[in-house]
Amino acid sequence: MGAIKTTPTKTTRLKRREFCRSLPCVALGGLSLSELSKMALARTASGEGTSASSKESPMAAEEKMEKKIKGIDAKVISVKGTCGLGHKVGDVVRFTEKGVEGMICIHALYSMLPAVFAMMYEARFPWLTDPDKKTHPCTDAAYPVVFEITRIREA
After folding, report:
1. Which of 54, 119, 141, 151 has the fewest other C-beta atoms within 10 Å?
2. How many domains does the chain have?
3. What is the DSSP-derived secondary structure letter of residue 68?
C-alpha cells in the first residue's frame, strides 16, 4: 500500500499486513480511513495485534514476504508401502506460474493444488511454525505419500 497521511505535514508508512493484523475486521465497517490509520499505527507501535508465538519479528516476516516467489517445490518426505506411480523419498516437483516441472500422481496433484496456489499467492496458515513450509499427504489411504510444500523466494 502507499503512504497514509496522519497530519498535513507528516506522512507515515504502514505496511498492508501490519494494518490488516492490527484491527479486528468488525471495526472496519463504520470507521473512516483516517480513523483506521490512526488506530492501526497506535496498536502497531504498542505491540498489539502481533503474534507473540512467532519465532521472528513481524517486521522480519513482512520483509521476507516482500521477496517475490519464484515457485513452489513439493518434495516427497515419506512413502508408506509402494506408491502406484513410483514416488520415492527425495522426488521434487516444481510449480511455477508457467506450469509444473516433474512427475506427480494426478491424485496427489489434484489434492495439493489448492495449497500450492494459496502458497504461491502469499496465503498464511496460522498453524504452521514456518509460513513457507507445509506438509501435505496424498489421498491414497493404503500407501500414503507425504510431500513437503515449500515456497521458493528470490534471493
Report:
1. 141
2. 2
3. P
For 113, what's the count of Cα atoms within 13 Å in the CB-facing half-sphere? 10
pLDDT in tens, 56-112: 565 565 555 567 888 999 999 999 988 888 899 999 999 998 899 999 988 899 999
Q: In terms of C-beta distances under 8 Å and separation of at least 24 residues, what long-range contacts does 90-98 make, across chains too? A: 93/147, 94/152, 95/71, 95/120, 96/70, 96/71, 96/72, 97/71
With beta carbons less than 8 A apart as the criterion, state whether 84 and 105 touch: yes
First to last CA, the chain: 23
Domain end residue (candidates: 63, 84, 106)? 63
Q: How far is CA 143 from CA 73, 79, 146, in A?
A: 22, 7, 10
